[in-house]
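Researcher: Good morning. I'm working through a list of sequences from a screen, and I'd like to move beyond sequence-only analysis. For each chain I'm collecting a predicted structure so we can compare shapes side by side. This is the next one on the list. No need for commentary yet; just the structure.
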Amino acid sequence: MPPAKKSRKLSRKDLNQLKEYGELDPFSNLGEENDLDDLISKAISRSGYGRLTGAPSLSKGKSKGHSHRGLAISKPLKASRPDAYSKLLNSLPAAPVTTAKRGVATSDDEAEESDNDARMDDEEEDTAAVSDVEAEYEVDEVEHGAEESESEGESEDETDVANSSAIKDYMEKHVADDDSSLMHRRLAAVAQKEYTQVAVDEPLLGQAVLYSVDGQGVRPPNPNTINPRLAKPLRKLNDGQDPSALQQRLLGWFDQYLDVVYADRSFDKEDDITTAYALHAMNHVLKSKDLERRNKARLSKAHAEGTDAGELRDQGFTRPRVLIVLPFRNSAYKVVEKLYKLASGGQEMSAPRFVKEYGPAGYEESVISKRKPDDFRKTFAGNIDDGFRIGVQLYRKTARVYTELYHSDIIVASPLGLRMVTGSEGDERRDFDFLSSIEMVIVDQCDALLMQNWEHVSHVVSHLNLTPKKDHGCDFSRIRQWYLEGTAQHRRQTILISEYMTPEIQAVFNNNCRSIEGKVRIKPVYPGAVTDVVAQVSQVFKRLSVKRLQSAADDRFAHFTDTVFPELEKAAAGDKHTLVFVSSYFDFVRIRNYCRDKSCSFAAISEYSTMSEAMSARRSLYAGELGFILYSERAHFYHRYPIKGIHRLVFYSLPEHPLFYTELLNLMLTSNDETASPELLSCTALYTKYDQLKVERIVGSRLASQLLTGERSQFTFA
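Model: Good morning. Structure tokens for this chain:
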């Protein structure tokens, strides 16, 4: 075997010597806030990075510019096992994958072990893996040595580009340190939001728009999609079947490490969607841990032979790599259960504490009235507590839940559960260092999160990949260079899944999705909610004149007070069966206060109204004792009140969920008595040119542009 090529960078041995002499001691003088930043700066400067590439100094977790990395991509190890996923797609009877017997199911006793026990277990796991990896390493070392001897005459940039193109796995290429000119251009393009938009034909998913970086365009599928150990449990999750068409298409986008927004979620697709992203998250963690084991075997072998293994960077500041954000515990129960089955070869989970705190026991679906819509029953079936967080630690044969956040590989949590830890500015005990090395964040059911508090989601996303305040026992010689340089946000993959697109989701897509691989937005072609209206009601859409987005809310309110409100007062003298629907809670409060100042005869139903208050208001409207009811979208989302006696429906703003529009109009047909003639029923909807997403979902993709940009400002659907 040819001698190892001497690294021109600072080696692990050199770093250990520096620590011994006190020149680089990560465990000393951590009282100051920026001490860790100083250590990182030293690690960068002493390893030669930042001298030619202009790497910025780090301060308080933020970089002062868009720097580039200076570590060449390491040559990949050749795969020694078959691609089980491709065999599954080819529908072979059985994939030739040898799967070891999985360990016992997680128990509550395991969850209560101390942090030291967790570290010892991980050390034992890595030690057991060294012998298996060393055999693989011996073969690869000979091959790579020959390759290195042949390419010694190449320049650094040419070598980087050649190595980059030789990598057969998108994951390995995505996380590899790279200082090539191509990477510099891609980083600059992402920083300046210079994308090439490409329309992609997706018959199954809908309309896909790819935001390509540096002219990459649509890439071929990843040839090395999933870890072979996941093939058998994947088949079990799919009841012995091959991956569905939807799973294949979603994985085709996920495993390219693009930032993805998928805005066509439904309960019919829920199982396929959650399986797809659970498989992708598990695959990412397993591949990362396999790389760590291979590098550990190299270091052990080099130490035994007294040689220098060079720089092997494969870690972040902290252990958690994947963050999955969900709205309720019932959603977390399904996702964690799938993660466990994937980690344990398809075994059923046996953790009484987890089942008790997250499972459906005690929350039977029969408690929900059968008169509620199907989507309501599925959303709120089970435990709907929205304050939770749970760590999942992966091993080679099983997984453990309820692990401490810093010892977890995957964190499953709600925005509120994370906010209780990350806190707010000025809080003494706030902590968000465990989010510093997140390489993949998945936010599912964004539509439900919007009905909670989206500000918590924005807060969590803004605290991802910041420089930690403490070192947390990390090994600086193993930390990837792009973590040290503060550009980890460009290596993070963000996946947002929702039933529909909203401005809030679009804002995260525009401002926080900054992957160097690019991003893609997928949404369906909408037929229009108006096609599902059964009641014979005249539906009038009025476009309000708005000059700019900042004044849209004030212009809408001015139109309501000057035009709509006087009409409501006149109508109240004869027909008092009017419902005013308001999408935004801020607009709801504004109108409620205005009506109170005018001493109107009205009632307000919001998500904060008690059951007795809502019942009294509904009874008064049906009896004609009120001028009108003010009704918020969140109240309809959480309760779906069957309001009877509606003759006139006014949409102050269109609902985010198109189903709500159909439900409210059909209530006019099913809840009125026989004396109410169709001539008395009417619907008026106010919108502006900035309500493009809402209008498209309600009137359909084909007619949306006409309503938004047409010469007329009023359109009628009968």
